[in-house]
Amino acid sequence: MKLFLKVFTCTLLTTVSINAWSVNPNPEAPTATTSNTLPKIEPARVHQVSDLLDYAKKFRGVPYRHGASSPKGFDCSGFTSYVYKDFGYKLSRSARGQVANGTAVDRSKLKPGDLVFFGGRSNSKGIGHVGIVTKVDDNGHDFTFIHASCSKGITESHSSESYYRARYRKACRVFKDNSLPKIPIIARGMDLAAFTADRVSE
Predict the structure, then answer these.
(1) Which domains does the chain possess?
(2) Is the pLDDT confidence value at 167 over 70?
(3) Among 7, 78, 127, 200, which residue's beta carbon has the most beta carbons within 10 A?
(4) 164 exposure class (CB count in 10 Å sphere: 0-12, 13-18, 19+)
(5) Cα-flanking dihedrals φ and ψ of residue 28, to 5°?
(6) Which stretches does DSSP call E strand in the chain?
(7) What would the pLDDT profile of 10-36 be if each residue is shown by its tens digit?
(8) Closest C-alpha among 49, 50, 69, 74 to residue 175
(9) pLDDT in tens, 145-160
(10) Distance between CA 61 and CA 155 in Å, rounded?
(11) Buried (b) or exposed (e) across 11-43, using 16+ Cβ within 10 A?
């Protein structure tokens, strides 16, 4: 009987030890859990058109400078290319070239952020000026736009003003679905010299 109890006790202790080791083979290390211990990775933020317009409006009052594209001074296409560049789009350096940088949009379907084009001071049929739509009127035809004006620098004007009403030519949409891709940080340091070619009189 004593022999039986010894064998039984020995077997029981061995079984308990094996089970304990299988749960945590290293008694000094804490048992891993399946709780959410990894840091959450937030998705990359997508800029909205309102962000682009807020950014453009920060330059209000900056003087007009022909051939310039910096916060010290802008011409019209220099301003639009500078603003869009900060949001990941490289536009042509001339108003005439920017027409081809997006999809043509009918005036009745304009949205904030669209590029609008006008004839130059000579009011020729060609493109000589460009701005960015900031607001579309309820009538779906008229709009407010921000641009580099020769006399006022970066300012907002309205399409019903006689000068612009007579010179409106066309519009285009560079982006889709009212959103803009977030530009990689490295691209923010791009050399502005890349945008100095193909200038036209504005």
Answers:
(1) 47-195 (3.90.1720.10)
(2) yes
(3) 78
(4) buried
(5) -85, -15
(6) 47-48, 69-70, 73-74, 103-104, 115-118, 129-136, 143-149, 153-158, 168-173, 179-180
(7) 554 455 444 544 444 454 544 444 445
(8) 49
(9) 999 999 999 999 999 9
(10) 7
(11) eeeeeeeeeeeeeeeeeeeeeeeeeeeeeeeee
Amino acid present at 8: F
Identify residue 190 by its one-letter amino acid code: M
Q: Tell me which residue has tokens 């006399």.
A: 151
Task: Decide if pLDDT at 44 tops 70.
Answer: no
* Cross-strand bridge partners of residue 129: 118
Contacts of 5 (CB under 8 A, 6+ apart): none
Percent of the chain surpassing pLDDT 90? 59
Interhelix angle 76-85/49-57, nearest 10 degrees: 130
Cα–Cα distance for residue pair 101/116, rounded to 1 Å:
12
Q: Is the CB of residue 118 less than 8 Å from the CB of residue 108?
A: no
**Residue 188 near residue 86, CB atoms below 8 Å:** yes
Torsion of CA 149, 154, 158, 159, to 10 degrees: 50
Q: Which residues contact 158 (CB under 8 A, 6 or more apart)?
A: 142, 143, 144, 145, 164
- Please tell me the total number of residues recorded for the chain in this structure: 202
Q: Which of 87, 68, 63 is nearest to 199 (CA)?
A: 68
Structure tokens at 78: 């220099």
Both tokens of 70, joined, read 């910096």
